[in-house]
Amino acid sequence: MVEAGTLEKGDVRVSIENAESREIIIKSKLERIYGNAIRKTVEEMTEGVKAKVLVEDMGALDWVLRARIESAIRKFRGEGE
Amino acid sequence: MKLRRTRLYVPGNNPHLIENVGLYGADCVILDLEDSVPLDQKFDARILVKYALKNVDFGKSEKWVRINGIDTPFWKEDIEEVLPYVDVVNIPKVEDYGDIEAISSVMSEIEDRNGLDERKIVPIVETLRGLINAREIAKHPRVIAMAWGGEDLTAELGIPKKKALILDHVRAEIVISAKAHGKMALDTVYGNVRDEEGLFEYARRARYMGFDGIGVIHPNQIEIVHRAFRPDDREIEEAKRIVEAAEKAMEEGKGVISLDGRMIDKPVLERAKKILAYAEVD
């Protein structure tokens, strides 16, 4: 499993681990308001990634979420070791 | 004239601190990938900084990134990731012209590949070796300003930084190195964020030492530093008269500028223009 980001205010932690097919789990205190937007970004950026993607949101803006997803995917593919 | 009175350091691994950087009015914002980022967050931080540069509104602030030093395994990847989105690359612990040249050639390669304009460099001199080579370092065409840091330098000498008398010499050397090549000179930070009076005096002293700005570590320091770098009314009045005299001489086709019976040399005119630039902002 790889992780990117933190659980600090304004951040988001994205964890990716091997799976048969893509599975996205989103945990956010603001899920009712931003859940769909978060899911849309995660789906768009993890297209073709066969993995379980856990997103723990601490109120991150979209650019922060995108940065953390890119980090996690690149680590999942072997970068940053 | 681009002012660099304040450059605000912001940790490159903290999105919450980064998101409002454009609101504070610093002349430059430095997203830091070096000292404020732990080793295990270097990878995440450089990607976060890339997205911040692309998405965050920096307002009027120039976009800087402090990369990791040339003595680390991180600096090339830092540059590769952020260069297309940055105005200035801030390089710690630069020791000689060769350091700048090595980094500059990596930058050129990325710029050529991406069709980018030439990005600028501000080196930070932090060692005795860097200091004796500062006059060479400042010559590099990418270098727009010289900065310095005293921690490593005073450690090398085995003296406490707060009591190090030699730092006035270091400051003078940085100013001389920069100014001799027409570059800006930037003083280091004032660490006590609660001491407003001390900060004002520190910034005033930096100005009269010949520096163009200082580093800041808290948004509350920005306005105080800008005030300290503002010329006083007498300086402004004198500068206006000099610039007016120069304009009049030009209109009349005179090669020599004179004011109150004395000749005004080019450096004096340049100083007057700089004073007006510092006075007219904010």
Q: Can you characterise this structure?
A:
- The complex is a heterodimer of chains A (81) and B (282).
- In chain A, 37% of the residues lie in helices and 28% in strands.
- Chain A is α+β, with helices and mostly antiparallel strands and 81 residues long.
- Chain A has a single domain (2-76), classed as Ribosomal Protein S5, domain 2, CATH 3.30.230.
- A 4-stranded mixed sheet of chain A has the order 1-2-4-3.
- In chain A, helix 1 crosses helix 2.
- In chain A, 32% of the residues are buried.
- Chain B has 282 residues and is of the alpha/beta class.
- Chain B folds into 2 domains: 6-229, Phosphoenolpyruvate-binding domains (TIM Barrel, Alpha-Beta Barrel), CATH 3.20.20.60; 233-280, no CATH class.
- Chain B is 47% helix and 16% strand.
- Chain B has helices spanning 15-18, 42-55, 75-82, 97-114, 128-132, 134-137, 151-157, 166-180, 196-209, 220-229, 233-251, 266-280; strands spanning 6-11, 28-32, 62-66, 88-91, 120-125, 145-148, 184-187, 213-216, 257-259, 262-264.
- Chain B has an 8-stranded parallel barrel with strand order 1-2-3-4-5-6-7-8. A two-stranded antiparallel ribbon of chain B has the order 9-10.
- In chain B, helix 2 packs parallel to helix 3 (75-82), helix 9 crosses helix 10 and helix 11 crosses helix 12 (266-280).
- The longest helix of chain B is centred in the last third of the chain and has 19 residues, at 233-251.
- The mean pLDDT of chain B is 95.
- At the A-B interface, helix 2 of A face helix 2 of B.
